[in-house]
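Recall from the previous lesson that a structure prediction takes nothing but the amino acid sequence as input. Here we apply that procedure to Secreted protein from Aspergillus tubingensis. The sequence below is the only information supplied.
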Amino acid sequence: MNLYVELAVTARLLILVQSLMVSHRPGTRVNLTETQRALDRIVTRRNRNRRRAIRRRERVRARITDVVSTP
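The prediction returns the following tokens.
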């Protein structure tokens, strides 16, 4: 690879890494369009809801197990 191509590849990789970095606030990635931001919010919400549902099921299961195990 010549130097120009290597620099171009490095620059693209840096841009890709920066765009994938997420701050503490969801949807604030670097250089996201409104559509990408909206999709990111949807994915974040789905993941959060999935985790909540899993925790809810675990609490219910623990409650049922606890009731059954105590005489």
